[in-house]
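The records we work with from here on pair a chain with its fold. These numbers are not coordinates but entries in a learned vocabulary of local backbone shapes. To see the layout at work, look at the sequence and tokens printed below.
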Amino acid sequence: MVTAPAFPLPPEVTQVVLGGGSSIDLEGMRCGSRAEAREFGLAYGYDLTIPVQAHQVRRVQAEAVAFLETVILDSGDPRPPVEVRDCEDPLDLLVWASARPRDARAAWSCAVLRVMHTLFYLDHDVNLRFLPEIQRQVFTPYDRHLVLEGGRWKLRGVYEVELAGVEKKEQKDRASMLLKLLHKPENVAETIYDHIGIRFVAQDRLGVLQVIRFLLDHHALLPTHIKPSRSRNRMIDLDALKTWMGSLPPAFELAALDPGERAALNRRLALRDEGAWENPFTAQDYAAVQFTARTLIRLASPATAALETVQARLKALGHPELMSGAGLADLLQEQEQLTFFFAHEVQVMEESGFRNSQSGPASHGEYKLRQREAARRRVLQGIL
């Protein structure tokens, strides 16, 4: 009996399984032959002897090379070798990425494979296939209370809250999602919590608290559906808030404060020691209350559309007896909905902080540049 050596352990064990790292941070692959590469591909989920699956892999490979050349690489950077850029068989990339010692071809093969791996996860995120309908259901509880009057937004329900603005993030573009995944430690599509998001801009810190209270009072937001580990408060000093609320008389209303009193109270509630922002790409002067909420999504079964198509065609052909004989009406009634919780991001910030976020270090453009630089370092290991 031949016994495979157990030690030394490969980096897949020490860095990923035991160390909690990501596979795309490994230095290279361990496919020493095309046979091993083929076995790896089968275990990954693709059989390249099946034309449809081979076409899917080659499409992803071409997209990965294009992303490297148009997004990751700067004008003065070295370019992928022609044999890597124009590689016709993805299995060759696995073999080349396994070369020891590593040469330029191995490093560039790894770079392409890192992007390909991320794209595979993005392509197989089932939520993205239903995103338009998910988006509609996520925004409905907010939309029923949002009113635009005289160019100004407000939340209207049992009472009203004035807003300085509202922004919706209806869907990340593909390049942005790919860039975000490439810099995330987990590197999987399920960890993007802001595919969909909404931002409320209030007058000041007290306005931020009013917006949150309104959303809770009108059940547009449920505390039971907030993901605890994703809540970020960079605005409100909770101790100061509790102290102030403990001193309030019964039935107090913010309208009782004059402008000077309101301004003083806003300063009193300001968070002094914000600490480290958990997302390393967020500027230190970015101020917002941010949390991730989940919505229970209900989608029709995929079989429903197919059965409705058959029903419509039989009706058009004038064969209602076939519809009845096949029991299509009963089959349609029996189809179960697909139900799942979908996470979306909610931000509430004050007007002055929102203006700051439009330019300078706290701007979205600067944030994306910091993301891109991190992705460059990760993808181009051994090249730059």
Notes: The beta strands are 146-149, 152-156, 160-162, 165-169, 197-202, 232-233, 289-299, 338-350. The radius of gyration is 27 Å. Residues 25 and 281 are 19 Å apart (CA to CA). Residues 280-284 have pLDDT under 50 and may be disordered.
